[in-house]
């Protein structure tokens, strides 16, 4: 069995192992079951299920990239379109999910949208898990380098500060430091740009009050585009993927479209379009593949469970822990595929050995992601709610004094 082959057998095996591990966690650990039952309320269940497939799809994509790297020493995209697209299309759909959820909330709440809660929640959603991961990266860099400074302390501090805003410079001259986490944080810059510009887009399209406001908001959007992308320019063809989520937010508000989306015919069309994108394109971030992806996403957002594939409890739990899965899988792959062979008599260049290690990673990733969600992500989100309430009370008290 080889990752360079055209067979998707090993990818199916990896999904099966992850789903089985998730099922076992739900069966034997009541805390996992309780969390899934609690978070299922007032949620787009179909979108939650989709998240589970997407986050693990990125893991499969990066596993294939690591397979190329351990054999050639070069980080390169897999030659097979499926293994390239399962990561690219997954990220595009993740961006659509972000835009769909928040634009839907904006349409629903209008001027009553809780901007303070939104801003605080985003900080406490991204950083509680990211900061421990960054500490692991810094520790690993200096461990590999025998605790020796190759750059000055100030230079290292500057590099770490850049990582805090999701850039990935090499730390202490450790080549390809970002490769330790599969460089996944590039997507967080796009998420941050979307979060920061959301109120401006709302004032342009939802809170319209004259052309002067529109012009000022457009200038602000451009300024944020330059600010967030100051180190590595934000690419317009990637930003287009957010439009698919906005389109879906309007799609699900058309009863006729929702009714059709929940039919078997729509489910078949959604699966066919996804198959076409995964097998016939080498890019997802281009106008036509993004247009294609918007259709199955809109169908799924309308509640189509794709013949039960999105309704599985194990998949919905994988969706719940998807941020951990996405953020941590690169570091796990680095440990298992690049560091472990230096400690044990195994050769990750051998196809069977690599696939066995990837299979082990599939299971470990579900366990680790469950633990980090329960004990880092969830407490972080709860703290964010408390922080937002505290700030709201302070602001209200100040207004009363004035």
TrEMBL record:
- Organism per entry: Pseudomonas saxonica
Q: Which UniProt keywords apply?
A: Acyltransferase, Membrane, Transferase, Transmembrane, Transmembrane helix
The family database entries (PANTHER family) matched by this protein are listed as:
ACETYLTRANSFERASE, ACYL_TRANSF_3 DOMAIN-CONTAINING PROTEIN
Spell out the protein name for this chain: Acyltransferase
Q: What is the lineage of its organism?
A: Bacteria, Pseudomonadati, Pseudomonadota, Gammaproteobacteria, Pseudomonadales
Domain named Acyltransferase is located at 46-368
- A Pfam family this chain is assigned to: Acyl_transf_3
The domain of life for this entry's organism is Bacteria
Which residue ranges run through the membrane?
Answer: 12-29, 50-70, 82-103, 124-144, 188-207, 214-230, 236-252, 264-281, 287-311, 323-340, 352-376
GO MF:
acyltransferase activity
């Amino acid at each position: 069995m080889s990752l360079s082959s055209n067979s998707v057998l090993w990818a199916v095996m990896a999904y099966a192992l992850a789903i089985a591990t998730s099922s076992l966690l739900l069966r034997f650990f009541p805390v996992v079951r309780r969390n899934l039952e609690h978070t299922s309320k007032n949620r787009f269940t179909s979108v939650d299920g989709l998240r589970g497939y997407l986050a693990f799809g990125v893991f499969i994509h990066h596993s294939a990239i690591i397979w190329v790297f351990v054999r050639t020493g070069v980080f390169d995209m897999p030659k097979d379109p499926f293994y390239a697209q399962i990561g690219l299309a997954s990220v595009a759909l993740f961006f659509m999910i972000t835009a769909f959820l928040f634009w839907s909330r904006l349409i629903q709440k209008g001027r009553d949208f809780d901007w303070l809660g939104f801003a605080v929640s985003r900080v406490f959603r991204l950083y509680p898990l990211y900061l421990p991961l960054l500490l692991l990266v810094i520790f690993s860099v200096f461990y590999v380098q025998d605790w020796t400074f190759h750059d000055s302390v100030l230079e290292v501090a500057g590099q770490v500060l850049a990582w805090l805003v999701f850039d990935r410079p090499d730390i202490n001259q450790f080549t390809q430091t970002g490769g330790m986490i599969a460089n996944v944080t590039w997507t967080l810059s796009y998420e941050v740009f979307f979060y920061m510009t959301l109120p401006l887009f709302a004032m342009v399209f939802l809170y319209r009050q004259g052309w002067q406001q529109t012009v000022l908001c457009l200038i602000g959007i451009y300024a944020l585009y330059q600010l967030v992308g100051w180190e590595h320019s934000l690419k317009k063809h990637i930003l287009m993927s957010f439009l698919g989520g906005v389109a879906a937010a309007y799609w699900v508000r058309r009863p006729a479209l929702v009714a059709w989306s929940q039919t078997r015919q729509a489910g078949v069309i959604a699966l066919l379009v996804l198959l076409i994108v995964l097998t016939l394109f080498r890019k997802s971030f281009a106008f036509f593949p993004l247009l294609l992806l918007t259709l199955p996403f809109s169908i799924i957002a309308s509640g189509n469970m794709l013949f039960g594939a999105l309704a599985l409890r194990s998949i919905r739990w994988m969706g719940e822990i998807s941020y951990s899965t996405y953020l941590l899988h690169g570091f796990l792959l680095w440990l298992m595929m690049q560091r472990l062979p230096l400690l044990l008599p195994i050769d990750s260049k051998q196809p069977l050995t690599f696939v066995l290690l990837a299979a082990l990673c599939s299971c470990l990733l579900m366990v680790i992601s469950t633990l980090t969600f329960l004990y880092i992500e969830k407490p972080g989100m709860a703290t964010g709610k408390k922080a937002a309430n505290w700030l709201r009370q302070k602001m209200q008290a100040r207004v009363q004094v004035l």
